[in-house]
Amino acid sequence: MNVLNRHFNASGMLELVFRIYVFTFLNIYALGKLMGGQFYTPENIPEEVFSTPLGIASNFNLAWTFMGRSYGYILFIGLTQLIGAWLLLFNKTKLLGTAIPLPVMTNIIVFDIFFLDKYGALASACIYFAMLVSILLCNKKQIWEAIKPLMASSEPEARTLKASIYRNIILVL
Q1: How confident is the model at residue 1 (pLDDT cuts 50, 70, 90)?
Q2: CA distances from 88 to 54, 71, 94 (A)
Q3: For a disulfide at 30, which of 64, 81, 99, 104, Cβ 3.0-4.6 Å?
Q4: What is the 3-state secondary structure (H, E, C) of 12-77?
């Protein structure tokens, strides 16, 4: 019973729910990108968007057309979401699976704030971002144990400088 309690406490269950939730939606978005359904690629620009002068195009249409212009960019974002999502499923790779999509989600949130008039997408991105950060917080002890040896040094001044640098990096993150 002690083993079950250790692995299935409230924090662990919440983390697992977050991992599965983010896994599901990152896969949906990634596959949408990779299968050509999310942005206006040169082959599938709607006629009303195609015929609209750039100066009067809506932020959404302009952004969706711009993002769809580069298949390499779509591939990069889609694969990053897909790889991060699948790494979330396994305990040994969940932290890497959290770290990989965090910058992508940050970019999506900033993009949605400045270019899109659809706040549902922004809300969803913020929820996924918050869940990824929560997964990190659920594992803060494990993360700290991984960082501690990096700060170990025989010289006190170097150790203090390293600790200060790492502390600042962690605060920024």
Answers
A1: very low
A2: 40, 26, 4
A3: 81
A4: HHHHHHHHHHHHHHHHHHHHHHHCCCCCCCCCCCCHHHHCCCHHHCCHHHHHHHHHHCCHHHHHHH
Q: Is residue 3 pLDDT above 60, yes or no?
A: no
The residue behind tokens 């949408």 is 32
- 115 in Cβ contact with 59 (< 8 Å): yes
Share of the chain above pLDDT 90, in %: 36
pTM of the model: 0.74
Residue 15 near residue 135, CB atoms below 8 Å: yes
Instruction: Tell me how far apart the alpha carbons of residues 129 and 38 are, in angstroms, rounded to a whole number.
Output: 20
- Exposure of 26 in the CB half-sphere (CA atoms within 13 A): 32
The residues, ordered by sequence, that sit 6+ positions from 12 with a Cβ below 8 Å of its Cβ are 138
Exposure class string for 56-81: b at 16+ Cβ within 10 A, else e: eeeeebbbbbebbeeeeebeebbebb
| Alpha-carbon dihedral sign for residues 57, 60, 61, 62 | positive
Express each pLDDT in 29-66 by its tens digit: 999 888 888 888 888 888 888 888 888 888 888 888 88
